[in-house]
Prior knowledge:
By secondary structure, this protein is mainly beta. The protein has three helices and 16 strands. The strands form five sheets. It has a six-stranded mixed sheet. The chain has a three-stranded antiparallel sheet with strand order 5-6-11, with no helix packed on it. A three-stranded antiparallel sheet has the order 12-15-16, with no helix packed on it. A hairpin with a 5-residue loop joins strand 1 and strand 2 (36-41). The two termini are 37 Å apart.
Amino acid sequence: MFGHTYNHGAIRKYIIMFGNMFNDIDVVRYNSSGAAVQTIRVPIAYGPKEKFLARLDADSGLDRKVAIQLPRLSFEIVNMSYAPTRSLNKMQRNTAIGSSASSLRSQFTPVPYDINMALYGMFANNEDAVQVVEQILPFFRPEWTNSVKIVPSMGQYFDVPTVFNDMSIEDTYENDYTIRRSIIYTFNFTIKGYIFGPVSNKGVIKRTQVDVTIPSANTASGNIIVSSTEGPQKQIVLTPGLLANGAPTTNSAASVASSSITSNSNYGYAFDSYDYFDGITRHDHQSG
Length: 288
């Protein structure tokens, strides 16, 4: 779009992040004396609850050995909305080392979006349900934060909070022996994520020069003072500074050549100032 083709897979990574938080939940079955006799790992998959309920209802005759295993977890994206309260400076860029030593990758700050997720827990009995609930709720007060690398080429990790909103309970039992009972717990969460734009790869500016002029004969044009006869009275030059041993420096005379300094060097900033009061024109401010 707008001349850029890219795919960071941000939404997919948020989905994987969300599912990984709930992929190691176990349910323990006890006998009449209170001893644990069976431990079941609760499976989880992406998909709406209606998909799994349809599989449950498909065995209306109750003559299959296995219709669907309960307990089970599923989850899905409900909706996404722009989050203006988390918006960052639109003109700020994140930078990283480029594809070569003389280039930098840059990317505008990401756009904040709230991703509403629903986690469904389907159970055959309340004992399994409350065990799962008690393994989820204590970790959300009300959020759990994961550190995720969304754009690998930029090498940056972002803290992504997942906020627990609420929980509802539904019992599909309808007093009919041909209908299988399933207890459904719905957990609603909000992932406070970011969506990232394209990454550009550009060269590094290694010299910046600023000329300062105090004209003696002026032609005023609005708020701009134009002088075609005066040269700069002061010149400021900014260059990277790096000693031969790899240490940063602010002394340009002691620094190696700027052509030898790469974007991933541990360089400093060298400021050099030159004063010119001899009246010689060194720069034409009209022609540039």
